[in-house]
Amino acid sequence: MNAxxxxxxxxxxxxxxxxxxxxxxxxxxxxxxxxxxxxxEIRFVLAGDTLxxxxxxxxxxxxxxxxxxxxxxxxxxxxxxxxxxxxxxxAEARAxxxxxxxxxxxxxxxxxxxxxxxxxETVPEALAMEARERRVLRRLRIxxxxxxxxxxx
Length: 153
Description:
Elements: E1 5-9, H1 13-17, H2 21-33, E2 41-47, H3 49-60, E3 68-72, E4 78-85, H4 86-96, H5 100-115, H6 123-139
Parallel strand pairs: 1-2, 2-4
Antiparallel strand pairs: 3-4
Helix pairs in contact: 2-5, 4-5, 5-6
């Protein structure tokens, strides 16, 4: 059973850079939710750095953009919201030698896991969350995002 996913594309660059960003989000979110005990609506916003910087400042006290933010919601039938920033995600994908689609999928999985209660505040939590992300991404046939990338000169 698929979750109820709402996807808003607030920054048109997502559509210009990716064919069907909604498909990437749906596949990645549903893969992250596979086997999860809780289900509910998730609202995704594919935005830009301006919105993510504002949210990061307002909710985390950090005055800078970030790639992804998750906002759990305890309303019955709702898991929460996930927002992603185009410029930051695109720059990270380039720097890491990944496609934007693969990086988006990873960050959607990451954000969805946060809504399910996963976290990475401590080393054991981070290792467990990364292992879960790797398993989900492997099923999606996306390379391990935590593998150290060797830059060849």
